[in-house]
Write a structure and sequence with these properties.
- This is DUF2141 domain-containing protein.
- The strands form 2 sheets. Strands 2, 3, 5, 6 and 7 form a 5-stranded antiparallel β-sheet that branches. This protein has a 3-stranded mixed β-sheet with strand order 4-1-8, with no helix packed on it.
- The chain is built from 2 helices and 8 strands, in the order E-E-H-E-E-E-E-H-E-E.
- With about 120 residues, it is mainly beta.
- The chain has one domain.
- It is globular.
Length: about 120
């Protein structure tokens, strides 16, 4: 999976793969079935999951600039770091649902791109 629109090379990209709505997307450390943390090089990053069984999944991606393991927000709860979701699901006042971000995976290679929003 290629991550687009990374605004700088500070910090890391965290990619979280979910197989159900439980904890999606905020509780990725607790609920995601697979998490990958990638260093950013020249504002570019890729997350490539391997040995994933067939099924329906959703991805959440954050640009953890200060490397504190979470998506930082301001006093109003709006994200101050980059975030994105599979299916290019959009966040309007709250994170999108698992259903909006889900995609089927049949076992073959899937080339996804996720654009970050800041």
């Amino acid at each position: 999976m290629k991550i687009l629109n990374i605004r700088n090379s500070t910090g890391v990209i965290a990619c979280a793969l979910f197989e159900s709505p439980v904890g999606f997307p905020a509780e990725f450390l607790r609920s995601a079935i697979n998490i990958m943390v990638i260093k950013i090089k020249h504002t570019q990053a890729r997350c490539d999951f391997e040995e994933i069984p067939q099924g329906t999944y959703a991805l959440a991606v954050i640009h953890d600039e200060n490397m504190n393991g979470k998506l930082d927000t301001n006093r109003l709860g709006a994200p101050t770091e980059g975030y994105g979701f599979s299916n290019d699901a959009k966040a309007f006042l709250k994170a999108p649902s698992f259903g909006a971000a889900r995609f089927p995976y049949g076992g073959q290679n899937v080339a996804l791109t996720i654009s970050l929003s800041y």
